[in-house]
Amino acid sequence: MFAEEVDFEAFNQRAIRYGNGLSQQQLLWEAVRYLAELLAQLETIPNAAFSSQFKAGSGLPLGEFFERLFVAHDHHHQEQIKAYWARLSVKPKPTIEG
Questions:
Q1: Closest Cα to residue 15, out of 6, 41, 57?
Q2: How far is CA 22 from CA 15, 27, 29, 52, 73, in A?
Q3: In sequence order, what are the beta bridge partners of 54?
């Protein structure tokens, strides 16, 4: 289902090299596309799997691993995007969160 051992530093370095070749708009569109793919894959995981232990998450249940890793990380990137929009004086569309 998922690789238990993940080299996050190597993954991040590859992502940085890849992202350096894209415009900021292309990078945002790619992020949206890949997040949609991730969500589609997550929907295929049985609910019971989210309460099982996941080694790459330091023994955390899979659901908590995803929450800590992806949600917190995405929030960090959301703040970067908001700062980018602010520099461009772009008003993002309202979301459910406000």
A1: 6
A2: 11, 6, 10, 38, 21
A3: 60
Tell me: the pLDDT tens digits for 49-82?
Answer: 888 877 665 677 888 887 877 787 788 878 888 8
Judge contact between 3 and 56, C-beta under 8 A: yes
- Would you say the pTM of this structure is higher than 0.70? no
Give dist(CA 84, CA 98) in Å, integer: 18
pLDDT single digits (tens) 2-36: 555 667 788 778 988 988 888 888 988 888 898 89
Please give the Cα distance from 18 to 74 (Å, whole number): 18
Dist. CA 34–CA 30, nearest whole Å: 6
Half-sphere exposure of 59 (CA within 13 A, CB side): 0
